[in-house]
Design brief:
The chain has about 525 residues and is α/β, with parallel strands linked by helices. The chain has 4 domains: about 10-285, Aldolase class I (TIM Barrel); about 305-330, no CATH class; about 345-380; about 395-535, Alpha-isopropylmalate synthase LeuA, regulatory domain (Double Stranded RNA Binding Domain). It contains 18 helices and 16 strands. It has helices spanning about 25-40, 55-65, 90-100, 115-120, 125-140, 160-170, 185-200, 220-230, 250-260, 260-265, 275-285, 310-315, 345-355, 360-375, 380-395, 440-450, 485, 510-535; strands at about 10, 45-50, 80-85, 105-110, 145-150, 175-180, 210-215, 235, 335-340, 380, 400-410, 415-420, 430-435, 455-465, 470-480, 500-505. Helix 2 (about 55-65) runs parallel beside helix 3 (about 90-100), helix 3 packs parallel to helix 5 (about 125-140) and helix 7 packs parallel to helix 8 (about 220-230). It is globular, with a radius of gyration of 24 Å. The protein binds 3-methyl-2-oxobutanoic acid and zinc ion. The site of 3-methyl-2-oxobutanoic acid has 9 residues, from strand 5 and strand 6.
Length: about 525
């Protein structure tokens, strides 16, 4: 893309986003999200951190093979990028994973701030410069497209950055990413930092400058825009702004700010904005991280008008209180698509339009679920289909599956749940348990069968569409309390980490949806425990 005002969107939902506590994704979920991001038109996709585990490496490899050779809206496949610390071992693994993409990239990083160099790396600035030079050159043997990030650039000495970045360019870096790793800077400072880098770094005209901002002070989007206006031409973002701690700059905010304020900002992106809502829902469902209702662009209230004065204005002219049309981000008012007379073919076609390719057994199962719901609910909207697809994805090929559930509750007796689960051995397990309420009783009964120790941190119920017959969507987040898992250290931080897992369920009966969600979170925990044991 030669247009000098074109901003490359570098999506790191599957890497920095997946580092959010509790956002652990399975390989199948990562692949689905990657396909959606490619359709959305991201220019670069950071598919993961291959050195983190053999599982992460395989997930990036699959994305490189499948999505890295799939044309996006521009006609070209997205660049598939793998993250690597500035170590040979990490760089080898990143290449092992991304090499199958039509357009592979290795992204390597080393910290440059005084506090990181002194305490974390225990290296002198000269040693840091040497290692950057050597490791960028090492990565360049594999691949032409090399990105280098001076970690914690926001708190680094600008003069030192000019030197390090100049050396990285000499060694072959083609993109220089400037991270505000801890979300410390303000827009004027960050814009000034980027302007200074563009003015003073030797050889900078040969590289693309990129920005990567964290949201610790709620300034990530403002800082990113300031960096772009100062001359950066790549923005690193995540869907729904998920990421380490308070998260990253959100893709939807940057894409829509650039589009809505085009005349003022004077930049463009290749994002197909009508797919934003769908991508946001998929990421929220798969990560188990609900989007706050007042979140810009993708929150449930982002286009809702409550106050009488606002409603009156809207009826007279939408421009009174609406700066973007909801359709621009793919928000259609519960578009009715299918009903109980729709056949398998119509369902398959509609799912395909929504981005899900379903055949054979999978189609049979989803069609049966669809008919079940269509019998209870007059019409099925796109959001219902998305909920059913996500639920199916969470329930398929899992260790334990829900085979039956019965609950009694109310004011006349003790809330009791009986569950029947099919175990990994194919054997039926039945348990009945009394709880504090119906959901508590169901979760306790499932616990009694599965036996995976967890703490429930979050339980959220949401109606997918309006109306009494709506499908209920449940997301949960659990923390694995398994003693062996709790001893594991994160390869990124070297510290013991918390193992958080998300789960999702959707059904017209919210107790059934809750059981699906909880069971899928336990299945994800069990699968992670098994992978760790086999990796040893
Ligand atoms: O925030 C950060 O510094 C990062 C780097 C790896 C780019 O995520
Ligand atoms: Zn980051």
């Amino acid at each position: 893309m030669n247009d000098s005002n074109y901003i490359r969107i570098f999506d790191t939902t599957l890497r920095d986003g997946e580092q959010s506590p509790g956002a652990t994704l399975t390989s199948a979920e990562k692949l689905e999200i990657a396909r959606t991001l490619a359709r959305l038109g991201v220019d670069v996709m950071e598919a993961g951190f291959p050195a983190a585990s053999p599982d992460d490496l395989r997930a990036v490899q699959t994305i490189a093979q499948e999505v890295g050779n799939m044309a996006g809206p521009s006609g070209e496949p997205p660049i598939i990028c793998g993250l690597a610390r500035a170590h040979k071992g990490d760089i080898d693994k990143a290449w092992e994973a991304v090499q199958y993409a039509a357009r592979p990239r290795i992204h390597t990083f080393l910290a440059t701030s005084p506090v990181h160099m002194k305490y974390k790396l225990q290296m002198d600035p000269e040693e840091v410069v040497d290692q950057v030079r050597e490791m960028v050159a090492y990565a360049k043997q594999y691949c032409d497209d090399i990105e280098f990030s001076p970690e914690d650039a926001g708190r680094s000495d600008p003069e030192f950055l000019y030197l390090v970045l100049g050396e990285a360019i000499k060694a072959g870096a083609t993109t220089l990413n400037i991270p505000d790793t801890v979300g410390y800077t303000t827009p004027d400072e960050f814009g000034g930092l980027i302007a200074g880098i563009i003015e003073h770094t030797p050889g900078i005209e040969k590289a693309i400058v990129s920005v990567h901002c964290h949201d610790d002070l709620g300034l990530a989007t403002a800082n990113t825009l300031a960096g772009l206006r100062a001359g950066a031409r790549q923005a690193e973002v995540t869907m729904n702004g998920i990421g380490e701690r308070a998260g990253n700059t959100s893709l939807e905010e940057i894409a829509m700010a650039i589009k809505t304020r085009a005349a003022h900002i004077g930049l463009t992106t290749g994002i197909e904005t009508t797919l934003i809502t769908r991508a946001s829902r998929m990421v929220s469902n798969y990560t188990g991280m609900p989007v706050q209702p007042n979140k810009a662009i993708v929150g449930a209230n982002a286009f809702a008008h409550e106050a009488g004065i606002h409603q009156d204005g809207m009826l007279k002219n939408e421009e009174t209180y609406e700066i973007m049309r909801p359709e621009t981000v793919g928000l259609t008012h519960s578009e009715l698509v299918l009903g109980k007379h729709s056949g398998r073919h119509a369902l398959r076609m509609r799912l395909e339009e929504l981005g899900y390719v379903v055949e054979g057994e999978e189609l049979k199962t989803i069609f049966a679920r669809f008919k079940e719901v269509a019998d209870k609910k007059k019409s099925i909207a796109d959001a219902d289909l998305e909920a059913l697809m996500t639920d199916q994805m969470y329930q398929t090929d899992k260790m334990y599956q829900l085979d039956g559930l019965q609950v009694t509750s109310g004011t006349m007796g003790l809330p009791t749940a009986a569950v029947r689960l099919i175990g990994p051995d194919g054997v039926l397990h039945t348990k009945a348990v009394v709880g504090k309420g119906p959901v508590d009783a169901v979760f306790k009964a499932i616990d009694a069968v599965v036996g995976m120790p967890v703490t429930l941190h979050e339980y959220v119920v949401r109606a997918v569409t309006e109306g009494i017959d709506a499908i209920g969507e449940v997301t949960v987040r659990v923390e694995a309390e398994d003693e062996e898992m709790k001893k594991r250290k994160s390869p990124q931080t070297g510290k013991v980490r918390r193992w958080m897992f998300g789960g999702y369920g959707a059904d017209t009966d919210i107790i059934v949806a809750s059981a699906h969600a909880y069971l899928s979170a336990l299945n994800n925990s069990l699968a992670a425990r098994e992978r760790m044991a086999t990796a040893d």
